[in-house]
Structures
1.
Amino acid sequence: MNYGEAKTKIKTVNLRKVFGTGNSRVVAIDNLNLEIKENTFTVIVGPSGCGKSTFLYLVAGFDKPTSGRILLDNTPISGPGPDRGFVFQEFALYPWKTVLGNILFGLEIQKVPKEVAREKAMSYIKLVGLEGFENAYPHTLSGGMKQRVGIARALAYEPSVLLMDEPFGSLDAQTKKLMQQELMRIWEETRKTIVYVTHSVIEATYLADKVIVFTARPARVKGEIDIDIPRPRTFTDEDYLRHREKILSLLDEEVTKAFKEEKQKLPKQ
Amino acid sequence: MKNWFHKSLAENSKKNALAFLYFLAPFFLLFLAWEAASRLQLINPILFPPPTKVFPRLGILLFSETTAGQSVLLTHVYYSLYRLLLGFVGGAFVGVFLGILMGMNKYVHAYFNPIVSLLMPVPGITWAPILILWLGFGDSTIIPVILIAAFFPIVYNTIAGVKSISKELIWASQTMGANKKTIFWKVLLPGSAAYIFNGLKLGLAHCWRTLIAVEMLAASLWGLGYMIFDAREYLQTDVIYAGIIVLGAVFLAIEKTIVRFAEKRTVEKWGVLAEI
Amino acid sequence: MCSLKSERITEQIKIEARLARLQKVKRGATRVFFFALPFLSIVITLELLATLGVINPRLFPPPSKIFLTSLTLASRQVGGVSILLIHVCSSFIRIVVGFSLAALSGIFIGTLMGTNKIIYRLLNPIITFIMPIPTFAWVPILLIWTGIGDRTIIITIFLSALFAIIYNTSLGVRSINKQLIWAAQTMGSNRLTMFLKVLLPGAMVSMITGLRLGLGYSWRALVAAEMLAAAAWGLGYMVFAARAFMAVDVMFVGLFLIMIMGYIMENGIMGSIQRVTIERWGMTRET
């Protein structure tokens, strides 16, 4: 994949985010500069608590940066909007709406005419493999199914960017694997620009075109690794393992650093 | 709606019949023992008139007529019920409205919350003497007092309901381009519905209890509370007991029909019946 | 050199500790301020409206007058005790007596119902029917029977709390995991031990719910009963009787005392009992 010619979809310039004041001040992100190209699958990994979710929330517009800018198609973003869909780790489905209702919601807001909206929603339900469950309520679904609804919902109104915050983090190992494969299949069909956050290097290497490794807090770009293995990938392939090792070694440094910091914060005995 | 009614009636009739009999048995025993003890003067027959006196009295009240030609008993029930309706609906409107405002906006909440939490433990009837002084006896006092009684549980639960909506749910709607109005009508209201419903239930019960007490204090001619209270002047304990039975029956009827119906159609379907 | 440095460090620690304490005090003060703000604004508005004559001061006395009246009532004495104190104590004693009786009988009967199926079958329907009947429906009969006075009031309070406590206790006992009871039996526990050490703690969550409800009902019954059936003392009586003399300021003093007493009871007492028992055992399912 030649990235040189692909358009830049998202760009951050000297991004900085600080929480709290005085003694409880936390610099979550500092001097973050990165670029994400259109129609690519970018995964962000980093040690826990390093600020990756914070970063995603900033891109989504749920929170504002303390300084610096985030540009989407060269215009700075100003709050959440239908150009950036979001898939939450805890699903965030509307319990009073059916599966179909949840997916239709975005289309309703966009004032898409009923017939068209329904067809679209049904096609996405098919895409995520939930045919037959249109009229089920979220509380009757399993975790994996709930997340499929979350993904379908975020795709249905066709935002140009999809942001995913550890979407499979609440699922068990087997479902996770299945969902990762499903996500790849869905992506091959839709080719959206995806920004995906996870702490699992295994997952990152499996899914991404490019992996960006964040440093420990405050978050900066530690390194970027392109993964040009053709899909579908296997978890045992040599190339895959090689890339995984590279990412893991970068990550390990940061994890150790974060761990040391935590230890220093403990009260003196 | 009709299908639901017919189907559940057929399915459950046999089960219901047996359960119903089991349920009634203790009452039969109670009435039997009561009758005997009262007739034999083991207990004061004025304080505890035998059921054979109470039930006929119930019939008399039901069928004797007022000057307007209506059943005495039903007129009393009518007055109590319409007061309940007005007070409850009023309290519900103010309660839900303020509750949503307080749940959504932290400044409104910070301002009103101390007042609400301090006033909530004040029994509704405490306001009665003051209102009697300002507004006189009768409906002008009764309805505001029970409105207050209904208001507090409703506003409290509404606030809890609005606050229970996770910020992720609001964010999700924002990423779909929803504006504030849409979020209010399509996310906030349905999301807090279960809590609001629970609050309405509690408010109704509260309203009812306070109504009877206020009617004793402030009603001038009609109302179940008044009927019961007034009967004591002439030591008409059979009227009192008849009234108590009617009280129980009326509220049971309200609960089993309206409340159950509303519950089945809304909250149970959504599976989010919240327990406070 | 070393001693100078360590001195400087201790100085620094002291300063930081003082700063931290100040911050805590500041935060506490801000919280109190914001809590009192709405009341202050209301009091000031009312005072202004009354002085400007917008509200008829005979119908709604300005807060300053209410305050003065409370002082007068507090200082005026009967038999050597402040009037206000007598009112408050009368109400307090009545509810303590009434509620404790209801709690004891309620827990006893409730446990009986929870363990014995026959008693349950017998009593449960009756209790389910009587419970939603407003306590006040019983007052006229009580008035005929025991007339006006403390006895009637206490019995009313007792009745108001009793059913809620019985119902919730029996619910709690019946929902104890059977295995807990079996375990105690295999350890050879007798009836009393079973009651005190297995049933009571096991049903505690429901029981406390019942006690809370019962306390709430008692409180309302107290005030209302004092209006209908008190002879001379009590907060409810104070508010009610003052109406006959159009002494609105006295009514409001009574109202405030009821407010404070109610707040202390609902949030203070019940809350602390809850904290000491079930929350410590991690048995609550609420926040």
2.
Amino acid sequence: MLASLTLLTISFRSPTSGALHDVQGAGSSVLRPFQIAASRVAQPFRDAYDYFDGLAKAKSENARLRKEVQAWRSQALLNEEAARQEPALAKELHYRTGPTFPNGYRAVTARVISSSASPFARSIVITAGSNYGIEKDSPVVSGDDLVGIVTDVFPDTAVVRLLSDTQNRVAAVDLETNARGVVRPGSGGPLILDQVAKQFPVHAGDHIVTLGTIDRNYESLYPSGIPIGKVTFAHATDTSSFLQVELQPFANLSSLQAVSVLVATRKHHK
Amino acid sequence: MSAWDGAKIAVLLFVAAVAQVSIFSQIDVYGAAPDLLLVTLVGISLLRGSVAGAAGGFFAGLIVDTATLGALGLTSLVLTLAGFWIGRYGETTGRDRAHAPYLSIAVVTVIYEVGLLVVHFVLGESAPAGPVFASLLPAVILNVIVTGPVYALVRRMLRPQAPAELSAEVQLLG
């Protein structure tokens, strides 16, 4: 008990530096081969589950995806036209933009070796750290979708706090309505888009991406435009000051096997 | 408890801790995941008593905190208490009872989750009571399901001790 309390006290006094932090990092490196071996042993079972799960959902998913492809196809044509006009308009207006995903970043891809999925902390440990250029507060994605942010860095490992962690907050915007809010975890599985003013007509199916900022004092930790999730429920009540918006994250946060850490290739103003 | 027993306990807990952080913690059933480490610790505590339970809990917690790069000592503290408490139950009333592992894991799962909630709250960290209580029942059910095979394996590796080797039962005076 005493030993536990002593360790707890020391680790709380210096959570991201100090001798104990270094020892913990070294211990983590020692445990890493065992964790990778355990993941490899579990991989065939995980693959088999995913295969049968995919088969069971294939028919309904196919119908849904066909519908989505039709909608996206027409949207892509409109986007193409808008993208063609954008550089000329931006130049004419002297429009200044902040860091935008994926420009200005390189991705460091790393394997997930352990995860903490308790209600208190939703985090993962990855097999890349400061030796690969990763810094504290680097954004983390899976494919193109936001996963979380780096909270602690060791030479060969780093801790990533997931979007579903109760301490995470991400400034976000609805692509369809331009409604701005803050993404935070809900009490169940889905995420909540909070602080959205009631006048915005947010609907189920809207896409939510990171807002990003160019404010020198309060610069967002996330570059603008990283996909976060899709609205599944939006409702206004008389008693609440804001809209109640739930969204399903695009990234499957509960079964991540590899992620990419976005490392800035040039320093943005801080 | 012999040194050979100690080595076997260390290996069991090490494997369970690594499997827990690498595999089992990624399972999500209604917000809960089976806790292989807790179940293994309960088995060891029931078979080897409170001292082995407490020491094992500390060791296992240290591995979990190191592997997940969490606050060192936090999981150790709660697992030490859990191991000690189950060990005392095994030394006294729970000895030789078939339902003891299942009852122990059901009770200790609740105590462990609530204990973690209290420790997080006391330390001023995020302590969301809602999700903890919402996932309690699924966590208990999952752990009880896992208990059967895991306890059988632990019992196979750590043969129950002769009555003379165990601590004396608690006797009520008066």
